[in-house]
What we know:
The protein is built from 2 helices and 6 strands, in the order E-E-E-E-H-E-E-H. It is an alpha+beta fold.
Amino acid sequence: MADTASAPATIEVNDAMFCTHFKEVCDLCAFDGREENDSFFGFDPIDREGIECPAATMTKDGIYQCKKHGSTSCNQCYGWKKQITRARTAAKKAGKK
C-alpha cells in the first residue's frame, strides 16, 4: 500500500485560511495558505511572507472571534486584505516576485 500524505488541518478565520497554529505559512504542519488567501482577496499569488492570526477563541456557534475585542468580524484584528497588501508591498521591495 502506498503512503499518502494527508492535507494539513485548516481553520477559517473571517474568510482567511490558516493552519491550526493560526499561521498562513507553517513549517510544523507543512501548510501554505498564501495562494488561496491571495486569490480569495483578489490578488495574483506572489512569494511573500505569511500573515498570522491574532489570538482567537471559538464561539459556541463554531466561529472564531478575536480575543482582544470579542468580535467575529473585527477589522482591527482581522483586516486580512490590508495585511496581505502590506506583505505584498514588502515582498516587492525586497525583490521577490
